[in-house]
Design goal:
The chain is mostly beta strands. It is built from one helix and 22 strands. It has a nine-stranded antiparallel beta sheet, with helices on one face. The chain has a six-stranded antiparallel beta sheet with strand order 2-1-7-14-13-10, with no helix packed on it. The chain has a four-stranded antiparallel beta sheet with strand order 17-18-21-22, with no helix packed on it.
Amino acid sequence: MVRNGFAKGILIDDIDNDTWAHNVFIFDKKVGEFASPSFEIIEKGPLRACFKVSTHLNSSTITQYFYLRKGEKAIDVRCNIDFHEKHKITKLCFPLSFPAKIRYSSPYGYIEKEASGEEEIMHRYVDLYGKDGMGLGIINENKYSGSFCDNEFRMIIARSAAYLDHFGKEHRDESMRYMDQGENEFLYSIIPHGSFEEVIKEAYMLSYPPLFYKETHHKGYLPTTYKGLEVSENNIIIEAIKKQEDGLGYIIRANETTGKKTKCHFDLSFLDVSFDMEFGPLEFKTIFISNDKKTIKEVETNEVIDR
């Protein structure tokens, strides 16, 4: 599924571009690779293993911790880059061994793009998939630009443009300050998959991990296990649950994520209500539930309720 050089760092020349890279859509002037790798096993337990890989280029270092968990397909990676280049871009490369197409995450959906090598907004994930739908998902928590060309995806992880550098190279001096200098740490995951839904759900889990609150022993009415809500279809995501703006009930915001028409059953145990709803491909719905639970209907996004 992958080729040699997977998750390898490369250095791209950025000297001719201003801070915002106006009218520049491709960053491919490679001037170096992070090399001389060192390997170390950090954990080796029955439930989780971790190995550390460090590579170097000039005075910069990329250190990646690869976590493998029992019973899980995803490989979680904690990546630390200690970056000291100027007017350079660092990308992580993910070359593939199978002919792939690519789709990028977008708000409440995705968008397919050609393998042109141009930088694209990737939001939570990219999905690299073959004719059978199987493929490789790459998800991240805060890196939002990548390119795809020659069956290789490249994700930008650092860019050392100067701040407010808008007037050309002849106006630069030694007092300029540079972005992304020093240490920067982030998480990403590599997910071999058989269905697109797996990538989307893992991307949401990485971006919005469960929050755990410690509590003391006390009396309460909830059982030791509790399910607040359940959605029957994996491609339907609930984005938000809130009180309606006028206090007339509750608002559920949900959307279809994979581009197919879907009928979904919602079981909202915390409200003691359940209902069915049909979604068109990539459709986003705002659903109103009245306080007395007698009215359940789709409304406009502004939550205005016809009385």
